[in-house]
Amino acid sequence: MSIPEIYSPGLEGVIAGETAVSTVTGGLRYRGYSVTELAAKRSFEDVAHLLLHGELPTAPQRAEFQKRLASAQRLPAQVSGFVKEAPKAAASMDVLRTAVSMLALHDPETGDNSHAANLRKAERLLAQIPVALAEHYRATKGLAPVPPKPELGFAANLLQMVLGKAPSASDCKAFDVSLILYAEHEFNASTFTARVVCSTQADLHASIVAAIGALKGPLHGGANEKVMDVLLATGGPDKAEAWIRAAIARKEKVMGFGHRVYKTGDVRARVLKEYAAEAAQRSGLAKWEEAAEIIERILAQEKNLYPNLDWPAGRLFHAMGLETPLYTPFFVASRVTGWSAHVMEQLDNNRIIRPRARYTGPEERTVPAGH
């Protein structure tokens, strides 16, 4: 007896593998720890260590981890030259994706797929990606690169490499929280892409390059770049309700809302919303938070749609004076930790990921004789 085919469009609801890295069941947890608690009590470096090494670091482990990251915060000359000389019109995600691919050519362990080697490569990428995105961004502005200052911590160092000045303590904390919240999210599109690629026994860099490609899309990571477009289109809080009701009538998708898994709201969005509101107050942009609140209320009432993490993240970055082309690369700088954790987990107990498809083409046909 043949087994009936079960088809789930977009693999919705399909359990495609096992993971100990994170779960979205009952709220997002990284290796058992609530992401809300991690954001309140720990730094991004601690969370990166948790994801890559499996446990939160002790004080000596934290110091050694930070020392290893600091020693790797440099780019090979060819990669640095590329990110600085890439066409100014090039999408920042395309430049970053290519830079990571180039880093594979210079990493001494690219071809070693052992867990230990992949862990070392993951740490190097965690250190190198912020340098690459910052050097590229500043080159597009005609500005010289700013050398890393790892003593500032990951979030503050990344911001000062981009902006050329040390961030305020408030902005640094908010940005650090955003990195924690973006670090990992179970079998999302980019993470699943990374696992598919490495399941063929391709190397870590290849898997991360593929994941960056998946993250670029506006239905995944690129959504945070569209948030301010939505808010600016409303014209402000006085016109926001009319605008969103018209958008609903047009059946227009509002970026930053809805999630395949979270049907009653994304816990990460609730955490970051407070930081976005505080940043808007500091920068005199509170009216956009008012407009955002109106849109949230109407979409919840009319469409049962709730914000995902991209909704407050786009507003936070805007309030901090960060430009839109940086938003999804920031996502990469954080999510490389989760991607790498999944690659190592997949390879530790690997089976090539090869699903079947439901065929919808013609029935079997006979090839006619040629004329």
Report on the architecture of this protein:
- This protein has 371 residues and is an all-alpha fold.
- Helices cover 58% and strands 2% of the residues.
- It is built from 16 helices and three strands.
- The chain has a three-stranded antiparallel β-sheet.
Short description:
It is built from 16 helices and three strands.
What are the key terms here?
single chain; 371 residues; 3 strands; mainly alpha
SSE topology:
Blueprint: E1 22-23, E2 29-30, E3 33-34, H1 35-41, H2 44-53, H3 59-71, H4 77-85, H5 92-106, H6 115-140, H7 154-163, H8 169-182, H9 189-198, H10 204-215, H11 227-234, H12 237-249, H13 267-283, H14 286-303, H15 310-319, H16 327-348
Antiparallel strand pairs: 1-2, 2-3
Question: What is the spatial order of strands in the main beta sheet?
Answer: 1-2-3
Using only C-alpha atoms, the radius of gyration works out to: 22 Å
Our estimate of the beta-strand percent is under 5%
Category from helices, strands and their pairing: mainly alpha
Q: What separation lies between the terminal Cα atoms? A: 43 Å
Helical fraction equals 55-70%
Order of helices and strands: EEEHHHHHHHHHHHHHHHH
Q: What does the overall shape look like?
A: globular
Q: Quick check: average pLDDT?
A: 94
Low-confidence stretches: none
Q: Sheet with the most strands? A: 3 strands, antiparallel
- Say how many strands there are: 3
Q: Count the helices. How many?
A: 16
